[in-house]
# Entry
Amino acid sequence: MKGKTLKNYGTVAALVVIIGIFGLLRPASFFTLKNFLNITRQAAPLAMVALGATFVMTINEFDLSIGNIVSLGGVVAALLSIQGVPIPVCFLAAVVAGLIVGCVNGVIVAKFGILSFITTLGMGTVLDGVIYGLTGGTTVFNGIPKAFTIPGILKIAGIPFITIVAAMLYIVFHMFMNHMSAGRKLYAIGGSKEAAETAGIRIFRYRILAFALSAAMAGLAGALVASRVGSANTTAGQGYFLQSYAAVFIGCTVSKSGVPCVIGTLVGTIILAVLANGLTILQMPSFMQNIITGGIIILAVVLQKLGAGHGSR
# Structure
């Protein structure tokens, strides 16, 4: 019973401990409303990318191209804004671009049975070429209108707009995954593709859906990152691949059955964001954050395997 309780609540307890440690070490800098709001603003794009990765991992697949899609989303949105396209359309275009890439990934994996690892690795390389062709390999910033930066820096009642967007997406997709037929079917496919097929679930359609949702989230995140910094870096998405899957793996330890879940991914994202913020306040060298993040991924995977036999969704 104690082991089960530790598995179900240990990750949340770890988050509380981490917050407590940073709060004790740097109370004046860390324990402030301004800093907590800053953490949510910094974490919001990662939260969106990790949410997308959750869908793909739910069906036991991987999308290695999500970092490239983040970069693509930022570039597409920024370039369109320079051309005078209405800002909402710029962001919609970034989402659609991601959606198209995700559908292509999903079709290749679902129809031809090619490993998602290989498919999305190849797609990431293709996207690198596309991004270079669109930008010439340079950061996009000349001519970006001020209106384009508004979504990234806007605050509503003191809360960053980008945080509100991420929170709304998590609420919507928590309901989707846990209370709607399509979400439950994704879990069924992840549990046993053969059993899901026998039950009449259209595997092909829902595998594509998972990849499409993943890429759409990455495209939106990329556009919001570009809006926040006022430019679109061709490699802006590089750091999101490792971080997003780290958040999902950590989140798996929150789930009773050790499977990806929306709430768990949110907890994982918050842990990574708090760590990054606290280590920065402590002026810890950047390489230490990579070491700690990698260690957390390994620990999360080990805990997931140790608890795999407990409960079922």
Observations:
- The first strand starts at residue 155 and ends at 156.
- The two ends are 18 Å apart (CA to CA).
- The mean pLDDT is 90.
